[in-house]
Amino acid sequence: MKRALITGITGQDGSYLAEFLLDKGYRVYGLRRRTSTPNYINIEPVLDKVEIIDGDLSDLSSLIRAMQISDPDEVYNLGAQSYVETSWPQPLLTSELTAIGVTNMLEAVRLIKPSARFYQASSSEMFGKVLETPQKETTPFYPRSPYGVAKVYGHWMTVNYRESFNLFACSGILFNHESPRRGFEFVTRKVTNAVARIKLGMQTELRMGNLDARRDWGFAGDYVEAMWLMLQQEKADDYVIATGETHSVRELLEVAFSYVGLDYRDYVVNDERFHRPAEVDLLLGNPEKAVKQLGWERKIGFEQLIQMMVDSDLRLNQALSDSHLKQQDYDLPNPLVAASWSEVV
Ligand code: NDP
Ligand code: GDP
Question: Would residue 70 show up in a list of annotated catalytic residues for this protein?
Fold first, then answer.
């Protein structure tokens, strides 16, 4: 039985990857940082099938311990401070986790089990102010946020450990990918949640930033398969994972609101607070290398993805409304919400 260690198992991708690997017969270990209230919402369905190990990306000794306990064949480093906007007010924390955290994981692998295969969650945010369109593996980086800068460091450290120590280390340059488990602050989830709440009479307006930004949005469930495929190849390499389509935030609003019979222009309000100090205007990936070499293909298209997320948020908010929970109750994780959430997501 193959063994895998996932950092960031409680997040969106970690939870989908855990399910994917369990289906393939892996023994799955997940690194979890201690929080005052347990944050198991995403992995609740598989909690009794995975082994949770306490640790933190900023604490090398805890990562060494996690490597010793799990003795993995494959390591997926998905943990990070993953939100671009937070990286301006918290640049040092972002560097500590999203950049140095990668070196900590690489060191833990090198010291404890150098034969383990390593996946690094790199990001299209590394392309930032894009120097070429569409973006591919050879496109130069020009990050536009402390998050993007931290990811560039993590990417090059992964490449460097491959070349210096002969680790089987891959960097997946993933474009934005979403799902009903996406964090509420990211634009897709913010919109689909607001659409559901407006439709159910729980909210009256939606305050937004730049509607002209364009992203290449795919489905997280499709993207975790690409991570696994990278680690099954003969040689370690880096791959762009994307849909090859780009849509504006305005198109996202149109698709989500019209799905429930509403016009976004009646509800959306421009709010300076959601405009960024430096913007990434356009992301569009070219996944040709992954399609050819990995045999990877995405299954869910843009409209289907957004509609799936609206449907899920309608169920979630209906359940919250039925149990008389208010917005502030689920901004903070709480066991009651976790219970109702697992029924709907
Ligand atoms: P999430 O924000 O959903 O998950 C991040 C995970 O990292 C959570 O499990 C979180 O734990 C964990 N984490 C945060 N800080 C620490 C820490 N100090 N020690 C250990 N674990 C920590 O992100 P996604 O699942 O969306 O993304 C997975 C990875 O892929 C991230 O590295 C992200 O930057 C990257 N990425 C994501 C893209 C996307 O579109 N989703 C695109 C490209 C790259 P907790 O639950 O306790 O917060
Ligand atoms: P990112 O690509 O990792 O930064 O993913 P996000 O989902 O956070 O943002 C995608 C794009 O949506 C960015 O260009 C944002 O500027 C834009 N955007 C516009 N309004 C909002 C908003 O209210 N919240 C967020 N998160 N993004 C917004």
Answer: no
